[in-house]
Fold this protein.
Amino acid sequence: MKKHKFTLIYGLVLVSFTVYMALDTFVLSSVYSTDTDTMNASMFDSDSVASLDSSDATVTMNDTSSTSTSETETTEEDTESTVDSATEKSSSNHKRHGKHTSSDSSSESDTSDSETSTDSTTNTTTSSSAEATIAGIIGSYDSDEAQITVTEYTYEDTEVYVADVTLSSVEYLKTAFAQDSYGKNVTETTSSMASNNNAVLAINGDNYGSQETGYVIRNGVIYRDEAGENDVLCIYADGSMEVVDPAEYTAEELLEKGVWQAFSFGPGLVEDGEVTVSETEEVGKAMASNPRTAIGMIDELHYVIVVSDGRTDESEGLSLYQLAQFMESLGVTTAYNLDGGGSSTMVFNGTVINNPTTNGDTIKERSVNDIVYIG
């Protein structure tokens, strides 16, 4: 009888511990810091980090085949003007080195063997395996501080949304935490965070809370200084971008080098203008065809922010290699993979413009830890 009693108690303790660990990992929230409005303004000449003033901006939203709609109407002349603006920005790319000059880090990943060419007139890309075509111009934003053109492409049976962003200063490329708190299992939808921070454009971030390690530097402030194994994307105060090996630097050293934002999801997709992932490489046990989120740099202060749909009959999704090829075709010198799958969301001018889904059955935003936004 005592033996059975001991076994029963042991079993209850084991089940209780397992349930607690599962809840602690996936459900129970733990806030580490609520002082997340702090920004390291010392990186810039101004006394405080500025925000975009939408009252001084010109905003257009065009009808597209996306399920999201806008009440703003534009004329054919307006649309042509927007396309011309995007073309002009594309043709003025300098294709400069994408890495920060003070780093010697390099990648040994496989590179793409496919031939890729870009038509600078339409920004339509042709590779040996697929052709990206423009489905429509979704809208644009134009102010003294930021110029943004959002375009929908079709590529590899997938709808891909590209925001071409040029900034006067990288201080307008910001990040925000869910519920204005840094912590574990603290989540909120991308659109909600975008609204709370008056973002013109926003995407999901690296979902830092899904990992116990990996540098978290946001708006020039260190929140986690434990190095992980994943590539780290560094966006510097001068507007440049670089993918680094976390084993080579501490978080403090990166901050001293002028890192404004650091993400630890990865992997890096393009370095020095070349694809750096193999055809079979994936994130953990992810499916080959997924919704994706990525960010890349064409030149300092000139970025492309990309979100693809997936897991539906209308949009298959991309592999990492396909995503890297697409980013390369846009003319980036550096590109990096952020959290994808059901997290992949793009918000522009207050509207979710893609079709976020976890399993393909329902088009619905997933709550995430953080966003990257222009604001």
The chain has one domain: 2-374. Helices lie at 2-26, 76-91, 190-196, 251-256, 320-329. The two ends are 68 Å apart (CA to CA).
